């Protein structure tokens, strides 16, 4: 599910972050190179935007920093934006770890027996909270039965069970797939759709849209957990424990400047209890 929208600078920061996270645990050019004694890591940020080309100088700093911390003999990271592609990559590369968007984590958790070991906080990253907004309607009830523009409708289960919960499901509306984050914002601001389902980053961009000042929030979700840092069953127990201990240190000391440049606020150790509520809802 797409969970990001950005003005140009924020889009670049988020894309830079995801590339840096992938490269930060990548000491070899491909996952195959890390098979013998190495560590493969999947970064799955669905519908990521922007170019990662400008990230390289900061990625290089993070590579050395994380490598020293974990003493991995070799490693490879893969950044993907498609859940289907990620499933194929997991089967072919037997990863030890992943950093996953919330919806992807919930979907892949059971199939791949994922264990939460941490969380990743990004600067200005969308997907922590969702909103139904409108320029013409004044309540969620007023939006039901009318057009709902959204670029988040590609994961009905996540929206219905985790976002809308008992308040709404996508079937309550005539859903219009706006495909791109900014298109959603513009569509509701211009009155092309009666209402829109957007995330927190899209909400922040509303004032910049033509007509955005007239758009009001008619419903808000609870705040959701951050991206999940997970271990796959292939991760040895001792390696996993060591990696979990070093997560909070990635953005301190030598890594502080690089984290700031790529838009990463922090990595920190966490357990499944931090995601217990959304796991229960999703199931």
UniProtKB/TrEMBL annotation:
Superkingdom of origin organism: Bacteria
Pfam families (UniProt xref): Phosphonate-bd
Keywords attached to this entry: Signal
Signal peptide: 1-34
Taxonomic lineage of the native organism: Bacteria, Pseudomonadati, Myxococcota, Polyangia, Nannocystales
Name the UniProt record assigns to this protein: ABC transporter, phosphonate, periplasmic substrate-binding protein
Organism: Enhygromyxa salina
